[in-house]
TrEMBL record:
It comes from Paratrimastix pyriformis. Keywords: Ribonucleoprotein, Ribosomal protein. Coiled coil: none annotated. CDD domains: eL14. Residues 44-116 form the Large ribosomal subunit protein eL14 domain. Belongs to the eukaryotic ribosomal protein eL14 family. It comes from the Eukaryota. The lineage of its organism: Eukaryota, Metamonada, Preaxostyla, Paratrimastigidae, Paratrimastix. This is 60 ribosomal protein L14.
Amino acid sequence: MPFNRFVEIGRVCTLNYGQEFGNLCTIVEVADQNRVVVEGPKVPRQMIPVKRINLTQFTVKIGRNARAKFVLKAMQEAKVQEKFDATVYGKSLVARRAKLQESDFERFQRRMAAKKAHLPKKH
């Protein structure tokens, strides 16, 4: 199976570092070998290093240096968010966000349920 996730204009990716961790964005411009310009619904247009993104299997058809409204429209028409949320990585990010939003009591309940699941059964 050949490699097909290239750094290219229109490639959808997720950010793997910083405030926008896990948010989807699209590569709008390739600056050089190590940096790209990205933009997305929750990510402002910015230049970031390639090592700070995870490339997905999805692409959208946009031109080089496309304006923000065209990028967002292309992502919505391709239903990128729904497709990404159906992937294994997307599901793990949703679970991770839910775990971060838990209250103390919810964490306690989860811990007690895990402890109860591992107890030996009485005959």
